[in-house]
Amino acid sequence: MNSWDAGLAGLLVGTMGVSLLSNALVLLCLLHSADIRRQAPALFTLNLTCGNLLCTVVNMPLTLAGVVAQRPPAGDRLCRLAAFLDTFLAANSMLSMAALSIDRWVAVVFPLSYRAKMRLRDAALMVAYTWLHALTFPAAALALSWLGFHQLYASCTLCSRRPDERLRFAVFTGAFHALSFLLSFVVLCCTYCKVLKVARFHCKRIDVITMQTLVLLVDIHPSVRERCLEEQKRRRQRATKKISTFIGTFLVCFAPYVITRLVELSSAVPISSHWGVLSKCLAYSKAASDPFVYSLLRHQYRKSCKEILNRVLHRRSLRSSGLTGDSHSQNILPVSE
User: Fold this and answer.
1) Residue range 294-305, pLDDT digits in tens
2) pTM for this structure?
3) Which residue, among 16, 114, 24, 3, has the nearest Cα to 56 in the 3D structure?
4) Domain ranges of the chain
5) Which option is the CATH number for 3-302: 2.60.40.10, 3.40.50.1110, 1.20.1070.10, 1.10.3720.10?
6) What's the pLDDT tens digit per position in 233-269?
7) SS3 168
């Protein structure tokens, strides 16, 4: 194993570690907080988190074994199952992000009717559609024997070894990425652009009120005026940064792998195996970044994490105080005798 392979293996191990810990923490927050569970986005987050954990414990270790051994990491049946799971989880992850963006769009554009438009039942129907949509392509690939170990990506995924099926496989791959990656990207752009438009409109209204207040308050201290203007500037940038993060992480993680898969269909362009594995690692890194982008940095999840941490520390302090009390009573008993 050369230095490139060692670096890619290290990247995979790091991605697995971060993904496992962060997604497990999101699950703990969901289990701990009833307030989070009552909200419709919790179903989308749960679906995304469970998919990320499944990818972390099944697909990433097999890809790591493929990178290290430079050969299929498992038997044919297990590799087909892993390839089925890989294809399903990739589509499910993309569509779950699209569902979360639709939820944000409804919440921002229709705030007064959000609870009526996005109930738990509606969220469950969206998750059910996401599963049905994501299962369609791996099921078709399984029926056509287009699942197995792909040497370019050192992983069990979509592949076709028969030259006579090249055109059909190319059409299938193009349709899969168009109806998963491209569709999700279009939904993300449309919904978040609407959200950004509404956010900027509200910012302008707040800015007008702020400037009118500053004009009326003649005796206001200059430092207070400067803080108000700085907050005004931060308010304008906050929504743009969040939306850029949502769309940017989606593109950075998935676009290199999708483009490589499409370019691979053309034999005119040779692709390095190192780049193939790296693009696969970038796709896997979405599982590690999703908990931070969609959950752990939000106020409710941070609050839930603090409560879990306080509970754990409180239990430890009770145990240590109990042990101290027991040892103290044992020390006193012989003296009293």
Assistant:
1) 988 888 898 998
2) 0.84
3) 16
4) 3-302
5) 1.20.1070.10
6) 676 777 788 889 999 999 999 999 999 999 988 776 7
7) helix
